[in-house]
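Milestone 3.1: sequence recovery, worked example.
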């Protein structure tokens, strides 16, 4: 039995982290580099002008300092305009040295003569602002150092002053008490393209420039006042968060939550991301994993020391019990605990994918026959002319998508092509392809809105919607097969599929303004015995509010947890995990694998000594699966993909 290193996601001593991570042969290269660098540094934090820099340790010179625009505006991307304030972030061992260079009127390299190595005392090192306190400073352009000088300027006693770049608010966050765990500088500049590009170009020009070292209390007589070479480069996408993860500031689940928070579109997405970012999901999985490792430790004790080692605190009773049952009760009270843990995992998994649906958003497909008013309904809900509306059948060919916020749920509304018999007059190959795409949209949708023309044959419209619910595929079936399904000649599996689809369908009878006198919305919808139905008019907006309210309730019901938070927390058996839900398919895959391993353990643990090794192996596998969720072990295969989803500057 091999124990899995229990590496918490919170920061701990650098030497301990280095020792643990170096023991893994499958470690991602960037993690090894960051932990080696961090373990060799010993910086402290003070609140004075002479902020100790992590760059004072020469071993950190091998790690680059990165910079990027961390806010919008500044012409950072095509089509982006200017903003009032733009934030430029610098992180790494040379961050504070780069700030000193930007704050200096003169090139700091001029403190040294080309020969002899003597200081030029006319140039002073600028003082840094106090840590975590905003200070208004003028930034100067190091690119102006290359401005040609005439003979008169060369004869002046004072060096040539640099051109100003901007007047900015400057904040410093010395490591390790920062987002990345390194020294961080934030420059709050004006948000014009000229200012932002000027500051970024200035930082880029500092790469490989020789400057005086930081005057830090940690300097020794051997290192004080010596030259250093800056190593600055633009950051890769997500590299700031990547370094935070590498330095133990964020766990893998928290990194995923941060990515979700950055791209959240609705209030419920934001709340869910914040709940995950505060660590409750990590605490849940790490709590489960801790219990598994306890059981694994007991198992290894029995394997190492034999029958004399009991797996229960009451050793006398346990030893007596094992003598009577041949070791069948060797696991003692551990087996019931593991059973309870497996049941908690199963309850955690049986959430109808609410967290994933909220994170990814719902897909709502509007389907029906041609000219039923599907595009008109889409435009009405979107509040704009997103789809072309025409009286000619088959106008909509491709799927038109519109994003809506329904009660805090991100929903993608899909307008699809009208479905009719391929042998009808006017149907061509392009419309047939559009109908295939409409069926695929209905198949993949979480909610289906079936639109029926109330002024025409309602039964024909209903049959068209029913046909799409069952055959939401590429539409390659024969007309006879579809007719058999519609008229009841279907097998049990198709019937179950149909029943599942019926739970998430809303029927809409459109064009109430065109119905004959004597019929109203209630009389028309009463003719339908299938699901929830609403009578509306896209022309007069009659009944639209009622339909939209029901659609919002349906969307909320698919992402809301009906269980009481406090009772659910008790079921999950870990304190402080209220509202912890699965938000990614990766989480669900590993938790399912852990639950399956515990099921196998329950079987093997009832076989006494003969299956002791195999039962312990199942515990190890379950703990390993949970460790992969939190990033404690074996996650290098997903790190590059995850951080690539971040924007540059985060």
């Amino acid at each position: 039995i091999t124990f899995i290193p229990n590496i918490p996601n919170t920061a701990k001593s650098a030497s301990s982290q280095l020792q643990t991570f170096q023991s893994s042969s499958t470690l991602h290269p960037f993690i090894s580099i960051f932990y080696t660098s961090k373990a060799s540094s010993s910086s402290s934090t003070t609140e004075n002008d002479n902020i100790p820099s992590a760059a004072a340790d020469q071993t950190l010179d091998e790690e680059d300092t990165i910079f990027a625009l961390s806010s919008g505006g500044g012409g950072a991307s095509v089509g982006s305009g200017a903003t009032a304030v733009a934030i430029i972030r610098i992180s790494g061992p040379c961050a504070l040295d780069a700030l000193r260079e930007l704050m200096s009127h003169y090139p700091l390299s001029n403190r040294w003569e080309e020969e002899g190595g003597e200081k030029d005392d006319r140039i002073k090192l600028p003082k840094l602002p106090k840590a975590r306190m905003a200070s208004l400073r003028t930034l100067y352009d190091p690119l102006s150092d290359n401005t040609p000088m005439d003979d008169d300027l060369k004869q002046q006693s004072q060096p040539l002053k640099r051109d100003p770049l901007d007047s900015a608010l400057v904040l410093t966050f010395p490591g390790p008490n920062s987002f990345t765990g390194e020294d961080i500088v934030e420059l709050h500049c004006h948000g014009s393209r000229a200012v932002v590009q000027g500051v970024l170009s200035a930082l880029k020009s500092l790469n490989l420039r020789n400057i005086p070292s930081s005057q830090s209390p940690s300097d020794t007589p051997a290192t004080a006042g010596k030259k250093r070479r800056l190593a600055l480069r633009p950051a890769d996408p997500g590299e700031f968060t990547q370094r935070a993860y590498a330095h133990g500031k964020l766990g893998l689940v928290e990194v995923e939550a941060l990515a979700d928070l950055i791209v959240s579109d609705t209030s419920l997405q934001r709340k869910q991301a914040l709940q995950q970012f505060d660590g409750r999901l990590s605490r849940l999985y790490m709590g489960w994993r801790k219990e598994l490792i306890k059981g694994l430790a007991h198992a290894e004790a029995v394997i190492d020391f034999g029958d004399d080692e009991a797996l229960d605190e009451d050793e006398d009773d346990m030893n007596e019990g094992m003598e009577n049952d041949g070791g069948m009760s060797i696991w003692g009270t551990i087996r019931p605990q593991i059973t309870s843990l497996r049941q908690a995992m199963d309850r955690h998994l049986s959430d109808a994918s609410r967290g994933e649906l909220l994170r990814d958003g719902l897909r709502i497909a509007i389907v029906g026959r041609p000219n039923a008013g599907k595009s008109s309904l889409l435009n009405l809900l979107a509040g704009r002319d997103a789809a072309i509306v025409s009286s000619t059948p088959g106008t909509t060919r491709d799927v038109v998508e519109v994003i809506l916020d329904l009660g805090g749920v991100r929903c993608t509304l899909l307008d699809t092509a009208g479905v009719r018999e391929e042998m009808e007059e006017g149907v061509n190959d392009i419309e047939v392809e559009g109908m295939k795409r409409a069926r695929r949209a209905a198949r993949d949708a979480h909610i289906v809105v079936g639109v029926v023309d109330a002024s025409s044959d309602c039964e024909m419209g209903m049959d068209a919607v029913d046909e799409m619910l069952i055959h939401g595929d590429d539409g390659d079936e024969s007309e006879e097969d579809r007719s058999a399904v519609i008229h009841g000649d279907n097998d049990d599996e198709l019937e179950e599929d149909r029943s599942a689809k019926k739970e998430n369908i809303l029927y809409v009878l459109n064009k109430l303004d065109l119905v004959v006198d004597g019929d109203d919305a209630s009389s028309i919808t009463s003719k339908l015995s299938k699901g929830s139905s609403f009578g509306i008019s896209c022309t007069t907006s009659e009944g639209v509010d009622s339909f939209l309210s029901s659609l919002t309730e349906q969307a909320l019901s698919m992402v809301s947890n009906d269980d009481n938070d406090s009772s659910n927390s008790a079921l999950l058996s870990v304190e402080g995990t209220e509202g912890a839900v699965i938000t990614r398919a990766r989480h669900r895959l590993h938790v399912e694998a852990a639950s399956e391993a515990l099921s196998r353990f329950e079987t093997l643990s009832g076989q006494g000594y003969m299956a002791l090794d195999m039962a312990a192996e199942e515990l190890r596998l379950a703990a390993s699966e949970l460790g992969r969720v939190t990033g404690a072990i074996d996650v290098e295969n997903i790190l590059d993909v995850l951080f690539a989803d971040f924007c540059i500057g985060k």
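The first strand starts at residue 65 and ends at 69. The chain is about 40% helix and 15% strand.
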